[in-house]
Design goal:
Length: 285
Amino acid sequence: MMKSLGAVLPRAMNLTKSVPFHNDLDSLLGDWSSAGEAFLWLASVSFGIIFCELVSDISKAFSPVVFPGHAKLSKKEKVEWDSRSVSTAHATVASIVAFYLLYISDIFRDDAPYGPVMFRSTLLSQFSLGFSCGYFLADMAMMYRHYPDLGGLEFFVHHLLSIISLVLGVHSGHSHVYICMVLLSECTTPLVNLRWYMSVLGQKDSKLYLMNGLSLTLLWLVARILLFLYCFTHMYAHREQMKQLHNVAYVFLILAPGGLGFMNVIWFFKILQSFFRILNRKQAP
């Protein structure tokens, strides 16, 4: 029965070995490498969840001290404040690691001696994907706990797509180059959150708010529009490698970046409209 099923769904049953990740794990743990891979995933997800809880606790403890206007916020705004503190911390860590893997390390360079780029991953990339998975799980739990005061449908869809992508990436060790590109786009999140902080603290008329809007618009264009266009171009150039992925990953690799990219374009136009409204208000006599 298993052989016949494997013949029908060969890519779903036979995962290509990820390099250098599986080679490094075999060298470190030998016969225990399978158990070590499961432990690495559980440890990284747990670390992501614990990290979120620690940042949330720190935000609750120090935000009222550092920001005097925090005491005037409503209960709903205080909940969102802490949630955005967590997302800022995760985005900072995730984008730094993604930048290192994409542009400093040679792991995803085409000329690096690790075989097809589609099937490359490392201990660091695996851990970082698990860490981000832990964040998205913790944030979805927070949205559920505080519904309808926190989050919305678009955030739920974003998180769900992200979690499925991360789980597939960790399970197979494949397509980490594209997941890292998506995680790198999280570098816009701190500016989005800073914009919200200044808004609720009554600083929408400040120069800093205007500069934040300009910086966010430019960074969003680079990190969430141009980077995604490069991602799709890279996929097309490596389409023969993509065809070797297992079925679910192949379909989801097309759907997830496409869905996130579509939402990025919609949000970009909203950011542009908001920025030009502020600019026009500043220039009005």
